[in-house]
Specification:
538 residues; 2 domains; six-stranded mixed sheet; 8 strands; 65% helix; elongated
C-alpha cells in the first residue's frame, strides 16, 4: 500500500515537472508562429486532457513542438496576408490537422508514413531546426530583419549585428547557459522554468534598456469557439495540415512503439492516430495550436519515473491554474529569454550524431538527409517536405532497382542437393540457371533484358533457367523485358524455362502470357527438376 502511495506521489510530482517544462516552451513556440502567449498556455490544458484520456500509450506526451512551429510559421504568412487573424489561422490548421488524422484513423492509414525513410525525416527535421534557430538568434539579438527566405535572413542578421542589444544578448545567452548547466548538474530539475525565474527576476530588477517582455496576458480559461475563415484560407492551410498530420503519425509511432517495447506494452498505432486527431480538434475548439508527439517531454517523463498518463492530467490542471492566476508573471517574461529556451530546445532536433552515423555506414543516405535539410532551408518547409517525400520514393526505387543476379551452380552432393550461388558454376554442360533477387519492375526492366540477352549469348548455353523464388512481383514493363529475353534466347536456339515459381508469380506469368509462351513443360517446381529435364533432352 505504501508502495502504491509512493508511486502516486511520484506521478503527481512528474506532472509538476511536466508543466514546468511545457509552459515556457509552449509560449516560446507560440511566439515563433506569431501567436499570443495564451495560445501556448491553452494548448497545455484541454488538448492535453483529451490526449491523456484517449491514448493507449502510458508515457507518450502530446504537445506543440519545434517541427510544427516551423511548418506553421511559414504557412500562416499567406493566410494572414488575406486578412485572417494569426490565431484564427492557427486554430484552423489545428482543426484541419485533427480532421485529417481522424480520417487517417478511419481509413487505417497510419502505416503509410513508414515510406518516409529515417534519413529523409532526419534531414527534414534538421532543416526545420536550423530555420527556427535562425529566427531565435534574431530575437536574442533584438534586431528587425525583413527577409524572404533563410539565406537572405542570415545575410540580414549578419548585417544587423552592429545594431544588436547587448543586454538582450546577455538575457538570451544567460538563459541558454542556465538551462544547459542545470541539465548537466541536476537533470531532473525544470531547467526552463528556473532559467525564466532567474533571468526574468534579474530583468525586472535591473530594467535594462533594449530587453522587451511579453506584455499583458489575459487571465482566464479558454472558451470554446470555432475558427471561421474564407474558403481560400482553408485551402491554403490544407498542405501544412497534411504535413503536420503525417509528421505527427511518424514521430508518434516511433515514440510510442519505442516506449512500448521498453516496458513490454502492446501499442495499437492506429488507435494512437485517433487520440492525435481528437486532441488537435480539442486544440482548435479550445484556443490552442496544432500539436504532436514530443520526444523531449516523453523522455523527461520517463526519467521522472512516470508510469501512466497521470502526469499529463496533473500538468493540464496546473496549466489551467497558471492561466487564471499567474498571467502577471507570464507577462514579465523577456522575449530574449524565450528565444534562448526555444533555441536550446531546437538544437536537440538537429540530430548531428545520426548524420555522423550515416556518414560512416551509408553515404547515399547521408546525401539524402543533407539534401532534404538544404531543400527545407532554400525552398521552405512545405516545398522541402515534398522534396523529402520525392527523395524517399526515389531512394526506395533506386534500392529495389539495384537487384543482384546469382548464377546458380551444380550441387556438391549430386543431383539431390540444393542449387546455390556458392556451388560449382555450371560450365560446359549447356545449362545456365539465373536467380534475380528482388521484384522485376520498370526501374530494372532494362537490366532484365540485357542480362537475359547476354546469358543466352554465352557460348555453349543450350538451356537458360530463371529461378523466380526470390521474385516478389513482376510489372508489365518487366514482363515485356522477359518476353524480349525469351525472343533473344529463341533466336540463338536457347531453350528458356522458369523454376521455383510461387503462386502469385505463377498467376502473373499466366496473365502476361509468359507461361503460355515458355510452355507448361518448361515451368519446374525445383532447379533439380529443371536440370533433370535438361539431362533427359541432351
Amino acid at each position: 500500500m505504501l508502495d502504491s502511495a509512493g508511486r502516486s506521489v511520484n506521478e503527481v510530482l512528474a506532472g509538476v515537472t511536466l508543466v514546468a517544462l511545457s509552459l515556457p516552451i509552449n509560449i516560446g513556440y507560440a511566439s515563433v508562429i506569431g501567436l499570443p502567449p495564451t495560445t501556448g498556455i491553452y494548448a497545455s490544458i484541454v488538448p492535453l486532457l483529451v490526449f491523456a484520456l484517449t491514448t493507449g500509450s502510458r508515457r507518450l506526451v502530446f504537445s506543440p513542438d519545434a517541427t510544427i512551429a516551423a511548418l506553421l510559421a511559414a504557412a500562416l504568412v499567406p493566410v494572414v496576408a488575406m486578412g485572417v487573424e494569426p490565431t484564427v489561422a492557427a486554430l484552423g490548421a489545428a482543426l484541419l490537422t485533427g480532421l485529417l488524422l481522424l480520417l487517417a484513423w478511419l481509413l487505417r492509414l497510419g502505416g503509410l508514413v513508414r515510406f518516409l525513410s529515417h534519413a529523409v525525416l532526419v534531414g527534414f527535421i534538421a532543416g526545420l531546426g536550423v530555420e527556427i534557430l535562425t529566427s531565435q538568434v534574431r530575437r536574442i539579438l533584438a534586431v528587425d530583419v525583413e527577409a524572404d527566405g533563410w539565406v537572405r535572413e542570415v545575410i540580414g542578421l549578419i548585417a544587423a549585428l552592429p545594431e544588436a542589444s547587448m543586454a538582450s544578448v546577455a538575457v538570451g545567452v544567460g538563459t541558454i547557459v542556465i538551462v544547459r548547466a542545470l541539465r548537466r548538474v541536476a537533470p531532473r530539475t525544470p531547467g526552463s522554468l528556473i532559467a525564466l525565474l532567474v533571468v526574468g527576476g534579474a530583468v525586472a530588477w535591473l530594467r535594462p534598456e533594449g530587453v522587451a517582455v511579453l506584455g499583458p496576458v489575459p487571465a482566464g480559461l479558454p472558451a470554446p469557439s470555432f475558427p471561421v475563415m474564407p474558403l481560400d484560407a482553408w485551402l491554403l492551410l490544407l498542405p501544412v495540415s497534411l504535413a503536420i498530420a503525417a509528421l505527427t503519425i511518424a514521430e508518434g509511432a516511433v515514440l510510442s512503439q519505442s516506449e512500448g517495447r521498453k516496458h513490454g506494452e502492446e501499442i495499437d498505432p492506429n488507435a494512437e492516430v485517433f487520440a492525435y486527431g481528437l486532441s488537435n480538434v480539442a486544440a482548435a475548439v479550445f484556443a490552442g495550436m496544432p500539436m504532436g508527439a514530443s520526444a523531449s517531454r516523453t523522455a523527461a517523463m520517463a526519467a521522472a519515473g512516470a508510469r501512466t498518463q497521470v502526469p499529463s492530467l496533473v500538468a493540464a490542471v496546473l496549466a489551467g491554474i497558471a492561466a487564471v492566476f499567474l498571467s502577471g508573471l507570464i507577462a514579465a517574461i523577456p522575449l530574449a529569454a524565450l528565444g534562448g529556451l526555444v533555441a536550446n530546445a531546437v538544437v536537440k532536433i538537429i540530430d548531428v550524431p545520426t548524420f555522423r552515423h550515416l556518414a560512416r555506414v551509408r553515404r547515399g543516405d547521408l546525401a539524402i538527409a543533407l539534401g532534404c535539410a538544404i531543400a527545407v532551408l532554400l525552398l521552405g518547409p512545405l516545398t522541402g517536405l515534398v522534396v523529402a517525400a520525392l527523395a524517399s520514393s526515389i531512394d526506395v526505387v533506386r534500392r529495389a532497382a539495384a537487384m543482384p543476379w546469382s548464377t546458380l551452380g551444380v550441387p556438391p552432393d549430386g543431383p539431390e542437393g540444393r542449387y546455390t550461388a556458392a556451388d560449382e558454376p555450371v560450365e560446359g554442360t549447356g545449362l545456365r540457371i539465373l536467380r534475380p533477387e528482388g521484384p522485376l519492375f520498370f526501374a530494372n526492366a532494362e537490366d532484365v533484358r540485357t542480362t537475359l540477352t547476354a546469358a543466352a549469348a554465352e557460348p555453349g548455353t543450350r538451356w537458360l533457367v530463371i529461378d523466380l523464388e526470390a521474385v516478389s512481383d513482376i510489372d508489365p514493363t518487366a514482363a515485356a523485358a522477359l518476353t524480349d529475353g525469351m525472343a533473344a534466347a529463341a533466336d540463338r536456339g536457347v531453350v528458356m524455362a522458369f523454376s521455383r515459381v510461387r503462386g502469385p508469380i505463377a498467376d502473373l506469368l499466366a496473365r502476361y502470357g509468359l507461361a503460355e509462351a515458355v510452355g507448361a513443360d518448361r515451368i519446374f517446381a525445383t532447379n533439380r527438376a529443371a536440370a533433370a529435364a535438361y539431362e533427359r533432352q541432351r
